[in-house]
Design brief:
By secondary structure, the chain is α+β, with helices and mostly antiparallel strands. It has four helices and 13 strands. Helix content is about 20%, strand content about 45%. Strands 7-8-9-12-11-10-13 form a seven-stranded mixed barrel, surrounded by four helices. A six-stranded mixed β-sheet has the order 1-2-4-5-6-3. The protein is globular, with a radius of gyration of 19 Å.
Length: about 240
């Protein structure tokens, strides 16, 4: 943690191995609206934070600005700082990272380049596990389930609806489950995942707003939220 000699800003610099890892962390952390950090020193409320997120192969770092809104003393002379993220971001740097991802996806000959996301989604069924939107493209979305196995309603061919709140209002993306699998992750022995294909013919305004989401534009201040529906519930909610 460094204090800038030119102002009272605190700068934190983090380097990621890939542009995808940077965007994944960006959407996870900024999407939560705030972050709590443990430090050895106390800072006053209102102190400005600048998070510099650098990806290998991308020259300019993405700068995310935040402000200390709460300070809590902890044992051992440490402090918990709650930093609330601001709504703006350096679009030039963010666009450079996104363009690098699109270029890499093009090299893989994918029909629809995928943009990493890390947004928690809720499902209306009681006792349903948590879902996470992990990537999105013009053609569909990749989902992860925080459970030891896929819920019974997640089957190939099941109607599906993803709702995400954007600045102009909710974005509704209908489709169906195309595949299911179990992936191995570093933080867990197995993680159930599944892929959804969107309807081929989306309404013009929906397609336009999906493009804005792929550019990580038109997103409201955090916390970001999403909702998933399956089967009959999805069909009822699809416009």
């Amino acid at each position: 943690m460094q204090i800038s000699p030119h102002d009272s800003s605190v700068r934190l610099k983090v380097t990621y191995k890939t542009p995808e890892a940077l965007i994944d962390e960006y959407t996870r952390s900024v999407g939560q609206g705030s972050v709590t950090l443990e430090t050895r020193r106390s800072l006053t409320r209102g102190t400005r934070f600048v998070f510099e997120m650098q990806a290998e192969g991308v020259e300019q770092p993405v700068e995310v600005v935040g402000e200390v809104v709460h300070v809590t003393p902890r044992p051992g002379g440490r402090y918990h700082l709650t930093v609330k993220y601001a709504t703006g971001v350096d679009r030039a740097a963010l666009d450079a990272v996104l363009q690098r991802i699109f270029a890499q996806e093009h090299e893989k000959m994918r029909r629809y380049p995928r943009i990493p996301l890390n947004v928690r989604a809720i499902e209306a069924t009681p006792f349903s596990p948590a879902f996470y939107v992990r990537d999105i493209s013009r053609g569909g979305v990749g989902m992860e389930v925080d459970a030891p196995a896929l819920p019974a309603m997640v089957k190939v061919g099941t109607p599906f609806l993803l709702e995400m709140e954007l600045a102009p209002g909710p974005l509704l993306l209908p489709g169906e489950v195309m595949w299911t699998s179990t992936a191995f992750r570093a933080h867990s022995p197995v993680t159930p995942i599944f892929g959804v294909g969107f309807r081929r013919e989306l309404p013009a305004d929906t397609a336009e707003r999906l493009e804005a989401l792929l550019a990580l534009d038109a997103l409201p201040p955090g916390p970001w939220w999403a909702r998933v529906s399956f089967a009959q519930e999805a069909l009822v909610r699809i416009p």
